[in-house]
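Lab meeting, action items carried over

1. Structure of the two-component assembly. Owner: GW. Status: complete.
Input record:
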Amino acid sequence: MVHAAGLGHIGGDFSSADIVAVLLLAVLDIDPMQPRMPDRDRFVMSKGHSSGVLYATLAVAGFFDQALLDAYMAPESPLSGHPDARKVPGVEASTGPLGHGLPIAVGMAIGAALEGSGRRTFCLVGDGELQEGSNWEALMAGAHRHLERLTVVVDRNGLQQGAATEETSRLEPLVDKARAFGWAVEEVDGHDHAALLRLFESLPLQAGRPSFIIAHTHKGHPVSFMMDRVEWHHRIPSANEVEAALEELR
Amino acid sequence: MTTGVDAPVLFDCRDAFASAVQELAEEDERVVIVCSDSVGSSKLVGFKNRYPDRLINVGIAEQAMVGVAAGLANAGRLPIVSAASSFVTARALEQIKVDLAYTNANVVVCGMSPGVAYGELGPTHHSIEDIAWLRVIDTLAVIVPADPRETGLAIRAAVQHSGPAFVRVSRIGVPDIYDNSYQFRWGKAARLRAGADLTVITNGTLLCRALVAADMLSARGISCRVVSMPTVKPLDVDEIVSAAEETGAILTVEEHCAHGGLGSAVAEVVVSSQPVPMRILGFPGFLPTGSATWLLEHFGLTAEGISRAAVELVNRKHA
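Predicted assembly:
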């Protein structure tokens, strides 16, 4: 998709691919035949630049025809560079500017709580994205309201657009920060499907608190020549690199 | 029917807002309020007591406030966001654009105490840019009511409308302009005075002043049409074109910066349909401190100031 479009953010797509796949294909109570079913679980892809992995996973889940993926970012395609909730079934929130998804997810979780519904809300954020202050507003609000059916997953690949997060505006100690904001915190290997599944099925981590999961990932994983390399934030693979990556994945 | 600002009783439109949202909440359990430590300043203490679970106060956090409202809309609620206009529109502008407008979320943002209501507190608290930066956002309706009745009706219409809306809720005292027969019409202006020499197009707290100005002009032999334009978006283009064609001069008057607001919206229609002499009355930019009344007087946003500008415009039209 990214090669064909000549645009995209493949490094972040790959770092979050396992998390998105486990959530959408194995955890969430969602129905591609009824994408607006009122009591569905909610998933907010706050790191909207990783639209590639979101679209690919939604297509695999049956929300739309996989053939549509060929039109990624093509003129007038519903599959824009950042997801449009009005145009793409299964996309709950239009995201792109960072720091928007978590407040929206808090609102979704408050809505569920007001109804007395047990539905769950998940929000995937990038780690660099946590530099946006709106996230911390939402973390305070979520803990204050004891939204135990709300889970944020951090794609902790350690890299943002231009450099490592810790070289740019450091996030550590992230576990302590999230705990100090009133969230129950757990760390997990963000590429280990079984571990992710176990953790998601054990939620909430603690009664009366929202859950903050730090998923340790690698940008570009599992492609050897992309892994942990900052230039793959939005570098476009050549035809040869696509072939080499596919060969590694086989 | 109409009175000026020397009327015996002036009303704070926040009271009409509070009554309207409580009525809407009683009628429809989907209605919730989302605010940012703005319960008292939005006159929502009564609502909070009546519906404690349906008043969601996120604290002093405007960005989260608008995002939370978007999430509640996704969950099937009808959220009404209520916070000081200067803060919600500027601090959360990107959330209004993306989370509400781009998503076409059913959320009504009520900008409390807009314009120069917080006059003495200075330009950080003045909200004289809000209409400019909101009216360019696609799908977002922008409404500036002029009196308590219109405020209540506009909020009701905005909640019932499919898609996002912004409603200014004035704090500066205004008289009752409308009686109970008035019906707010989405995207439609109201022609309150007939006139042939020029048209004043206005809204919000300055409508009552424009009506007095029309009387003053009438005494001088100038026939002034007065058009109330509460919906800056969607704009009543036909009424603007009629004003240009039939009166040949347009004076716009707004409690807002003279750039980018109602006057600019009207001018965009006039220049591309029926160019006629125009004058845009508003504030020049960052303002000195001073009470709301002082600021309106100082910058000519009074019946006398409107009347003076109208005479100049009519003279220019005939020059």
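2. GW to write a short summary for the group page. Key points so far: Chain A touches chain B at residues 38, 42, 84-86, 92-97, 99-100, 102-112, 114-115, 133-134, 137-138, 140-141, 144 (CB under 8 Å). Residues 190 and 215 of chain A are 4 Å apart (CA to CA).
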